[in-house]
Fold this sequence. Notes:
Elements lengths: L1 H70 L5 H21 L4 H13 L1
Helix pairs in contact: 1-2, 2-3
Amino acid sequence: MPKTILRNLQVGFGISLLILLASSTASYVSIRKQIHNSAMVDHSRRVMSRVNKILQDLQNAETGQRGYLLTGMEKFLDPYKNGLQSLPQSLSRAHDLTADNPAQQQVIDTLSTLV
Length: 115
């Protein structure tokens, strides 16, 4: 009889160990996937931030140009000049950030041509 109890304990311990191993493996895979997804979200956030910077530069240049054309005052060309100066760098950074997505790079290239 004591051998039966010992055998049952061994089987129970073995099953518990297998369940623990499976649970640990599932947790590890889940955490790795969550880390990857977090990195992808951060990357997307950086790309959107850079595209917003391009939009901001274009709006500043347009506003400055409009102000100068309406008033003829040179001070309104400052936002225009600043926007034109920072646009190439913003476009280049956006192009670099989208290196993993050819479709997005094509859009950035088209935008660069239009700008």
